[in-house]
């Protein structure tokens, strides 16, 4: 996927910025890694201002979002060999539209429940996060 410059009016919600590490910009979305080594967990955040719901994106952006969800999901599945991918756009706590893509394993600490609030977050070791981000960038053909 090619990189594109973010929209001038886009700004990342502080909660999303604080909870995650940047991976890069796709055509529509900023891709970020949630800083929790307990779960391989990515966020796609469309770089559009004042959007909280998928239905608020125009038809073209909705199509690009679906393509990016599929590409990022495939990359995460390839990297992790997970048993299941959880994909969700909840936004109950953070109103900015963001899509969670979480690699789940039958033996993970929250299985089969949702990951939210099950176990305390464990930040990645810097080298581990850097390696995972590098692998994601390679699989998604960031330039």
Automatic annotation (TrEMBL):
<dbReference type="InterPro" id="IPR036265">
    <property type="entry name" value="HIT-like_sf"/>
</dbReference>
<protein>
    <submittedName>
        <fullName>Diadenosine tetraphosphate hydrolase</fullName>
    </submittedName>
</protein>
<keyword id="KW-0378">Hydrolase</keyword>
<dbReference type="InterPro" id="IPR026026">
    <property type="entry name" value="HIT_Hint"/>
</dbReference>
<dbReference type="GO" id="GO:0016787">
    <property type="term" value="F:hydrolase activity"/>
</dbReference>
<feature type="domain" description="HIT">
    <location>
        <begin position="42"/>
        <end position="111"/>
    </location>
</feature>
<dbReference type="Pfam" id="PF01230">
    <property type="entry name" value="HIT"/>
</dbReference>
<dbReference type="InterPro" id="IPR011146">
    <property type="entry name" value="HIT-like"/>
</dbReference>
